[in-house]
């Protein structure tokens, strides 16, 4: 690019400084990366390994690396997207409410399994990580990782964990659960759709839930219930657990 | 559509207020969720406008955690140093969570 030949136009670098100072660039980057992620995901017949969020995060990380844009500057623009997390959390009441309709007196059983599953999630993640000598700054990010990401990040702030690490671990957990969950369920001969769905929702939140929905509608409804209830229970209980454990 | 968005914002704001002044150990949006759940239970159905907006937001929930997740660039060195151990912890934990939850459901479920 030679600015001498375009003397009547503002230099590219000037346009660039102007654009990168407004939230527009970060927003366009975030939204287009997500669209690309979604397209790849659809093309792959919704293979959980082609997770749209993971693809988008990699794309945005590469882009801001190439553009030499500091993360803080990116986030300043992208915070408009980030803000809606709270609204999304509130909206989770809608699938939970709809899920209640199909409970048929299973509430007690579901709650017991949920608490046991939630405890297992925190204890095994933190236990294995410490046993393998993982850096303590990362361990805290693991405590909320089975909770749906918007709530997990709220919990992270309350237990002095990094919301970023928590989000990354939550997304990874969701992908792992969506990919590996069925093998565990088959090995244990768990055949009822509602049980399979609920277990996936508790362990792998939103990503597990969308996996469950793509297999069976009843499994999906129970998965969103499991995800939602785990979110509420986690928000109330995890800060206490961290209080006496760390 | 705007109506549904406003309804959701109102519950979010109520949750934030409740968290700030009464229950600081629970995140505001989670309290908003609980309040909305109580409201829906009292009302007996989901208002159409709220259902439309809520479902659209939840359908693209993944988009909303991209900005925070991109912060991973700040943690790459420490993550790389612990990559195997962290992966092992995540895999073992998710397998154990699915197993415990599903087994309990199977053992405790009312036979029908």
What does the largest sheet of chain A look like? none
Mean of pLDDT of chain A: 87
Q: List SSEs of chain B in N-to-C order.
A: HHHHHHH
Oligomeric nature of the chains:
heterodimer
Secondary structure tally, helices of chain A: 11
Which structural category do the helix and sheet elements of chain B fall into? mainly alpha
Q: Tell me about the biggest sheet of chain B?
A: none
Average predicted local confidence, pLDDT of chain B: 91
Features:
heterodimer, A: 246 residues, mainly alpha, 2 domains, B: 112 residues, 7 helices, 0% strand, extended
Describe this protein's structure:
- The complex is a heterodimer of chains A (246) and B (112).
- Chain A is 77% helix and 0% strand.
- With 246 residues, chain A is mainly alpha-helical.
- Chain A folds into 2 domains: 3-86, no CATH class; 93-245, no CATH class.
- In chain A, α6 packs across α10.
- Chain B is extended.
- Chain B has helices at 2-21, 28-43, 48-59, 61-64, 66-69, 76-81, 83-108.
- Chain B folds into 2 domains: 1-64, no CATH class; 70-112.
- The termini of chain B are far apart.
- The longest helix of chain B has 26 residues, at 83-108.
- In chain B, α1 packs across α2 and α1 (2-21) crosses α3.
- By secondary structure, chain B is mainly α.
- Chains A and B meet through α2, α3, α4, α5 and α6 of A and α1, α2, α3, α4 and α5 of B.
